[in-house]
Amino acid sequence: MKLKIMLGVCCLYSVSALASIEWQTTQGTLKFYGDVEFNVDAASKKHQLTSVRTTAKKDFDAKDTDRWDVNGRILIGFDGLRELDNQNYAGFSAQPLADLSGKVNLDDAAFYFGHQNDWRIKIGRYEAYDMFPLGQDTFIEYSGNTANDLYSDGFGYIYMMKEGRGRSSDGGAIELTKYLGDFTFQVNAMIKDGTTLFDDNTYHGYKLHKDKNVIYLRPVISYQNGFVSVAAAVEHNLINNAYGYNDHNGKWLDQSKRTGYGLTTSWNSEGDFNKSTDGILVNTSVAYLDAEQETDFTAGINSIWKGIGLGYIFAANDIKSFNPSYKGEGEIHAKGKYKLHTINASYLIPDVMELDNFDIYLGTYWSHLDRDKKQGGGDDNRYGARVRFKYFF
């Protein structure tokens, strides 16, 4: 067995190095690596306006009352890969995750196989194509289960084509990807308990009851050359009456009809999306959700230049039905139209103490909620700041 030290690029849009250890065996390559991420946060008020995850904690709760918070996690990764001379390959990835609450969770646990530059099949727990990239997302954090607890009653919903993307705590997924030059076709199918999408299994003030699992189908077509990347996608639940609730008359109402549409584009002035760059990166994305008794629209733009990140997200929620007896948390307690504006900024301090695998990010955000005039009008604001310590090994 041969031991080899490797140095590579850690992620798509940040200037950081990921060191790893590789073992060459008769069955292929086994790689070990790690990712440390700790945050020190301060927020303006006790409650949020949206269900956006502004903490790296796995047990995220939109009703969290912490005004000051230290949170984070350590990820340990194990990847295995075997490639043949005929370009057939198979591999796996496992990523245990330990957070400051003392819990050990899991990011990815996936097996995949295919033919280089032709096709790939993946099965397990993972994230499919990102249809709403956030760039240097220091304070717009979506760590953890992107398919779980995205919607919290009483809070605005920033829909970002993540309901069928993956990493559910109550199900798995199968993905088929086909490569055709600069084009990529991907279909992801995720099977899970659909009520896990909603925090506390509550939607529009009603407690949801599961009848069967949902199956989200999420086809994506993308194009990428040196400077431009474009992708369009749909995510749709195929199973009717998977979950719902009984109204005050005892009538069953199906709430599992959900279809989302998304489009995202990226432009990189350096002409290489796979390497760190001192140039300009700009991402733009739009998403629309047609759900039972609700529609949601989201548009966002963000950019990175020499470690400086700036982004803006607009979201509009049109809620057509809401339980009038709802007494929960948050700022949205009735049907109506709501608009949310979020501005975030970040700054990267690379190579701290001359260590090329240790970075510090400074982040801040401001969110504004504009209520429907029929609901009494008015608005509300939240803001906060974060220092993130990022270390790769």
Describe the protein:
By secondary structure, this protein is mostly beta strands. The chain contains no helices and 23 strands. Strands 3-4-5-6-7-8-9-13-14-17-18-19-20-21-22-23 form a 16-stranded antiparallel barrel. Strands 12-15-16 form a three-stranded antiparallel β-sheet, with no helix packed on it. A hairpin with a 7-residue loop joins strand 1 (2-9) and strand 2. The two termini are 21 Å apart. Residues 1-17 have low confidence and may be disordered.
Q: Trace the largest sheet across and list its strands.
A: 3-4-5-6-7-8-9-13-14-17-18-19-20-21-22-23
Rg of Cα set: 21 Å
Mean pLDDT across residues:
86
Query: Quick one: biggest sheet?
Result: 16 strands, antiparallel, barrel
Give the uncertain stretches in residue-range form: 1-17
The SS-based structural class is mainly beta
Q: What is the tally of beta strands?
A: 23
* Gap from first CA to last CA: 21 Å
- What amount of the residues lies in strands? over 45%
Q: What pattern of helices and strands is seen along the backbone?
A: EEEEEEEEEEEEEEEEEEEEEEE
Proportion of residues in helical segments: under 10%
Number of helices: 0
Shape estimate: globular
From the structure above, extract its key features:
393 residues; mainly beta; 0% helix; 16-stranded antiparallel barrel; globular; 56% strand
Write a brief caption for the model:
0% of the residues lie in helices and 56% in strands. It has strands spanning 2-9, 17-25, 28-43, 68-83, 88-99, 104-115, 119-125, 171-180, 183-192, 202-203, 206-207, 209-210, 214-224, 228-237, 243-246, 252-254, 258-268, 280-291, 294-305, 308-319, 336-349, 358-370, 379-392.
